Amino acid sequence: MITFNLPQFTPPFWLKNPHIQTILPRYVVKYQPNYHRILIKDSLNESDVAFDYLLTDDIKVDGKYQKPLVVLFHGMEGSSQSHYAKSLAKSVHQTDCHFVVAHFRSCGGVAVSGRVFYNAGDTTEIHHYLSHLSHEFAHICAVGVSLGGNVLAKYMGEYGTDAIASRAVVVSAPVDLASASIAMERLLGKHIYTPYLLNPIVKKALANHLSDDELSALKSAKRMGDFDSVFTAPRHGFSSKNDYYRKSSALPFLVDIVKPTLIITAEDDPFLGVVAVHGDVSADVALLTTKYGGHIGFMSYDYDTKTFDTSFICRTALEFFGVSL
Predict the structure, then answer these.
(1) Residue 216 falls in the annotated catalytic set
(2) Is position 269 annotated as part of the catalytic site?
């Protein structure tokens, strides 16, 4: 059974709004990591995918770096430039550990070469990425955020003892994709969040050798469910969007996790529907549920320095990994 002292997240009253928590961090994180990019082939050997590294001084023993590597799996249309990636990069670098953002297909400015993009349940791709990293790094921990969090959580359960990451932290993950898609149709989700996420991925899809029927359907897509129905599901071998949501959701796999995993969720997250409770997870999963935090927010304020503090997730993840800031 996992033991971990779950920290409390208590923002000031004026930061308790979930939409402020969700939107503001994008504008307050100023740190710019000096990444080193390497391209590898995806698990299908079709498309290049980008790994953005921030390495620390280390020596190799038997061909592998000995200091821990923290690998981040980003959210939908995220990248190494997302606010949470830059915050985590800074914190990991301060602990003298290695860091890498493993981009999904079509993300990070690298276009796909084949028909397949990325989806919320592609654990084969996660295993491929981690297998590649395991050739050079002896100790690997993983963080998954939003869509990347769902894939990572599903991977940890699906692969069990064969999961390469020794520990995992899952943040703001839609572990039940069907209810999350409904949640995104609430007022602000429909008019603010959906266009922000949908427009760039539709633009990429439109450039990907579409049939006339696909082209027409994509141009009329107004909701994530529309996009998943006409593009994600058929392109990735699912019979419908409901089939995609059912087979790709992490929730049914959480009881099979055998390596220490922490799932962090805010009750006011505007992107999520059904979330995991204790009866849904194995004894090796810890659930940290906060009242506030929005979607990948968890932002507080330091009155001494008069600056916003986006380190809660970073501190918590590193403490869970056994690394202290």
Answers:
(1) no
(2) yes
Instruction: Report how far residue 38's alpha carbon sits from residue 58's, in angstroms, rounded to the nearest whole number.
Output: 19
Which residue among 146, 172, 229, 300 is the active-site one?
146
Report which of 321, 312, 325 is spatially closest to residue 25, judged by C-alpha positions. Answer: 312
74, 295, 300, 311: the catalytic one is 295
What does pTM read for this prediction? Answer: 0.94
**Active-site residue, 146 included:** yes
Query: Which of 122, 228, 268, 269 is the catalytic position?
Result: 269
Residue closest to 127 by CA, chosen among 43, 40, 68, 235: 43
CB atoms within 10 A of CB 34: 8
Tens digits of per-residue pLDDT, 17-58? 999 999 999 999 999 999 999 999 999 999 999 999 999 999
